[in-house]
What we know:
GO terms for molecular function: ATP binding. The chain is an alpha/beta fold.
Amino acid sequence: MALPAVVPQDLFDGGRVKQNVVPIPRPGVRFGPYPEQTQTRRPWTWYAAELLRARLLAVRAPSARERARFLHAVHEKRKQLQGCDIEFVSASARRLRSRFAVEGMTRHLVAECFSLIDACLRFHMNITLHDSQLLAGWLMLDRRLVEMQTGEGKTLAVALAAAAGAMAGIPVHVVTANEYLVARDAAALAPVFQTLGLTTGAVTAATAGSDRARIYRCDITYCTASELTFDHLRDQLGAASGQTERNLRGLCMAIIDEADSVLIDEARMPLILSGRVENAEQSAFYRQALFLAAKLKPDEHFKLDHANRRATLTAAGQEHAATLALHMGGAWRVRRRREETLGLALAAQHLFVKGRNYLVRDDHVVIIDETTGRAAQGRVWSQGLHQLIETRENCPLTQEQQTLTQTTFQRFFARYLRVSGISGTLHEARGQLLAIYGLPIVRIPLHLPNRRTIMPARVFATREMQWRHVVDTALALRTQQRPLLIGTDSVADSEVLSEHLSRAGVPHAVLNARFDAEEADIVAKAGQAGAVTVSTNMAGRGTDIRLGDNVAALGGLHVIVCQTNDSRRIDRQLYGRCARQGEPGSVEHLYCMGDGFDPLSAVAERLLRAIRREDAHGLPYRFVLLARAAQKMRERYRRREQWFYYLRAWHTERQLAFAGASD
Length: 663
C-alpha cells in the first residue's frame, strides 16, 4: 500500500533531521477533484497588528548553513551526472517521480531533481544554473516570494520550481507578465520539460475555448494572470449551473513571475465576466450624455478626482443638470441614473486621455494597461464608460455588458493552496505582501557584481527642454555606437519624442501599445550597437535586452527614464534593463517641472510653487528631493488604500458566503 504523498519540511538540527509533514496539493481523495483554498483567517483591522501576526506565522527562511547544505547536495548530484547521456537523465527523472510520490518533497530529492533539470538545460540550451538560481527555485517551493535582481535568470529559477512541483504530481500554473513571455518561455523550455517526462502548454487570449481544458491538463501551464483568472471564473459559473466539465484542475500551485505587479499593482483591478445585453437606444443615450456634460462648467458644476478618475456633480451641477434634462424623457427623468451617467460622461471627457489611457485601433477603443503599457485586448470599462468613450471617438459601440461574476487578483490568488513568486522589485512592498497574502520575502544575492552607473538626476522646466536633452544625448551616444533605451510615461509621449528624434535624423524604434505585435523584433535589436529605442512601460518588466557584439566594451546599454511613477519599484524595473548579469550600463532619470504632483498633497504643490519663485541655482536638486518625497507619499497612500480595500473585500466575501454566494 502506497504511503500518502507529503512535503516534509526537513530542518537540519545538529546533524539530525526533523520533519514537518505537509500534504502535497493535487486533485485526488484528500483535496477533491478541484482543490482550492476556501477558508481564510479573519484579518485584524490594525495594519501593524496584522503584519506582526503574519511575521509570526510565515514560513521561516532557511539559515545560511541550510542553504549551503542544499547547494552542496545539488553540486554533488551534478558531479554524479557528468558524462551521462540524456537518456540516462530522462530515466532518472522517471524514477525520481516515483520516489516523490512515496517519500514526498524532501530536500535531498529536491536537490537531485534540480541536478537533473540542470543537466537538461545544459543539453538543450547550453546553460548551467548558478547558485542564485538554485536557491531561488528552492525557496519558491515553500510559499515564499523571492527578490532576485533583473538579469539574474528569474525565468530559469521559476522553471526549476515549476518542474520540481510538477514532478511531485502538483498541477503547476506559471503566471508571467505578458503573452509575449508566455509564448516565449513555454516554447523555449518545452524540450527541457519533455526530457523530464513533463507536459507543458501555454494559454493566451488567442487560445480557443475548446483547447483550454486540454492545455490545463498539462503538468505545467504558462499563462497570464488575467487569462487564468477568467478561466477560473468560467469554471465557477459552469459549476453553479450544474456543468461538470471544467478548464482548470483546481488551484494547487501558482508561481508568479513579476509578483509585485500582479499582487500589488493590479491586485484591486476588477475582473468581470459578463454577458451582452441588447439595447437599441444606447447610441442616442450616450450622445445625449456627452452633449449635457459639455454644458457643465468645472468647479462650479462638477469636481474632478484625478487620483481615482471620477467626476462628481456639485449641488449647483445637480440642479443645472435637472434643468437641462427637463424636456428629455426616459432615463433622464430618474435623478440617480441621470447623475451617475453625467459623472461617467464627465470622466470620459476630462480624465481619460487618448494615447495615455486608451488608443483607437481599427475603429475600436482599446484600453492601455497602465502597469505594463500594453494594449489590453478584450478588456472594456464597465457601467457605460467604454461606450461613452467610443461615442466620443466616433467608433461603433460595443454592446452593453451584464455582470455574471467577478473577482480580483487579490481574492483569486488567495485561493491557491500553494502560491509563490519572484520579482526584482519586492522589497518596497514587503509589508503589504506579508500582511495581505502571508508571503515572506527572501532576497537573493547577486551572482555577479553590479556594474550599473546611476547618473545624477536632471530637472527641466518644460517637456520641450527635456526632449531636446534626450535628442542631444541620443546623437552623442550614436556617435559612440552605444545603444539607448528611453522610457516614457505614455503612448502619446513616446510618439512626441519619436517626432523629435525623426526631425533630428536619429534612426530609432518605438515600442508601445500600437506596435505590440512587433515587440519580439524590437527587443531583439534594442541592444545592438547604435540602436535607439523609445518605449513605454512595455520595456519595464520581463524584457531581456541582450547586448550586441563589442557593445559591453563601449559601456553597455544606457537608459533614460522620462517617467513619473507612483512607486520606486517601477523606476527600478526600468533601471534593470541595463547592466544585467555583470555587464556594464548606465541610467539617467529626467524630471519635468510639471510632473509628479497630483492632488494627493496640497502641501507638495505649495512647496513646488515656492521653489519656482527662488533662483534657479538651487532648484534642480531641491526639486528632485521634492519629487521623491511626493513619490514616497503616494506609496504610503496606496499602501493604506490597498489595506482598506483588502478589509472591505474580506468582509464582503464573508457576507456572500453567509448568503450562499461567491465572488
